[in-house]
Amino acid sequence: MPTPRVIYQPRPGSPIDVDRVFYGRLGQETETRNQIEQFVVPIRSGRAWPVLAGQICRIVVVEGAQVADFNAWNLNNPRERFWAARTKQLHRAHVTTFDRLWSCLPYLRPMLTITADTVDYPLDEDGAGCHDLLGTRCDPYVHKMLNGEEFDYCCHSNLVRAVAPYHLDESDVHDVLNIFQVTGLTTDDRYFVKPSPARQGDYFEFFAEIDLLCAISTCPQGDLSVQAWGQDADDPIDTCHPLGVEIYQPHPGLMEGWQSPPTSDYRGIHGLDRP
Ligand SMILES: [Zn+2]
């Protein structure tokens, strides 16, 4: 049997390999930053908010373990949005500090860089990791198919309500990063989850590389410790908790040399004949 081969291999200096000194300082030197905003997202709800290029945003476990389904768009052009599948290939299926979230084609640039992750959950004995890109958001269509029930507070719907004030709709909601969610593949290749290991005070933090519109849903399945679909389905509402969001402006001295990344310089001809 051939040995596994990582397919997307960066060359030295590639934007996939970030400057760990630079981003490490941004994540660690917290006493020099200014907090700009702070709010709490209640259980089974969604909220969207801008994070400007050069700002830092933190998703905080304010009470107990809770999964956040995260979406991101270019604040000035919502067609440019987070591309979960390619991010998984460029970095890994469970992202952490120094990984980046990439935008879709034809833009393809880092939208944000993760600067801190206090959960610290290395791949476990089942091959499971935290902050999941293997799966996507829960949605009311699959929920109805599996449980026969109308439910309006799945992550997909929470994100739809969250972005409505920004004149975005259901078609703008896209595949998510599941923050604080532990997932893997079973030995027979099926998607599985484990209860979130996040504890009060844990946070997941990122540096905005471009002006962003971010959104999270506080998943109605809470910490994912209760089976929500199938024969043994139960209502996980007792495992649901709010999440905090904090936005910071880092000290300008920490950002010296940083520039907001441009979109891809592929000329976009695709081999088409053009008159
Ligand atoms: Zn969900």
From TrEMBL:
Entries under PANTHER family matching the protein: RE64534P
Q: Which residues form the DUF1989 domain?
A: 40-213
Q: Which InterPro entries match?
A: DUF1989 (IPR018959)
Q: Specify the taxonomic lineage.
A: Eukaryota, Metazoa, Porifera, Demospongiae, Heteroscleromorpha
What name has this protein been given in UniProt?
A: Uncharacterized protein C11D3.03c
What Pfam family is a match for this entry? DUF1989
